[in-house]
Please model this.
Amino acid sequence: MVKFSLTSIVLVTLFGLTLAAEEKATICERTVKVVTQSDLDSIKACKILKGSIDIDQLAVSSLKLNGVEQIIGDLTLTGNPDLVSFAAPDLQRVDGQIKVENHTILSKVEFPKLIVVKSFSMAVLPALEVIQFPGGLSKVESMRIEDTRAPKIDGFKPETIDNFILTNNNYMKSFDLNTVKEVTGDILVLGNNHAMTFEANQLKSINTATFLNLAAINLPSLSTVKSDLSFHENDFTSLHLDSVESIGGTITIANNNKLGETSFKNLTHITGALSIGNNTQLNSIDGFPILSEVYGTIDLAGSFAKYDLPSLQDVRGGMRLQSTSSQLGCPEIERKLKGDNIVKGSKWSCMSDMKEANMIPTLGQNPSKSGGNGGNGSQSNANQVATTHCALLLTSVLGLIYYLG
Model:
């Protein structure tokens, strides 16, 4: 039988108590209202913090959150006028939101190990030039980047996301959403640098999306649009969405002054409206070779001389065509669409050789005054986003009115 000395027993006991104390110290349950750096230092032994951290209206230039690896709560930084840098070098997961908003001179924000967060928002940070996630941000439900100086975002790598907002980042010329396969809520991209290229090569399914002020967009895998899809005031010359098979709401293509070509080779069905208006270089309405059903209205306006939707069989709402071209053959179009009872709604009009000043804006043609003027403050940007969403909702309602009519 092995005998242990009293010293050995005491040492083992002390060691066990030390381990237990360390284990207990790694999980803390408290809410931290930060006044100075010492408040953050007081939780550096907490690997897991059950509670939130609030950093608001402090007169400090630098803050660092050491030690904490997971927050079961929120991390909020708002309106700290003297804050230049913030770092959370060990933070890997936040079960609530990270919000960094309204800091005029904040130029450095570091989350080198962050991989999971429920909601992430950076807004009104006109001095912030670098947004990156070196650890690879692989899981996030809601992402908002608004009014920063960053030219790009690195390390953004989720496969699915609920909502994505990218607005008023004047220096951002490209965005890579190439790991994302599904967006279940809203996509809103507007008011960034007018040279922006938006890439989402693996994106297959979206709910609602609005794109403004882009130089190029690439969505080669997109096949399902569950609600509304809108393209406004972009500078691209062509719009190819050849994998899209159905649109569950309204599609709006308006005010894209360089757009000369559209291509939706596999689109068969639109549940809402088809609205194409004021695309000054678009000389023909085509590119929808197998579109057969539109449950809402068809609303087309521009300088197009050619109308060609060869497979159209069922328009349950009304139809309105307006063109400045004298070559648009309205009598022939009416014989086909009304005579064969393709357009079933009571509202019908087709007018050619119109003066542009007399044309009625198409559904959803004017959803917002586009930005690109970052630094105007969170309220103006928020109003712009809200205006866009309200107008899109109005577009859907009007499409329904046409449908019922």
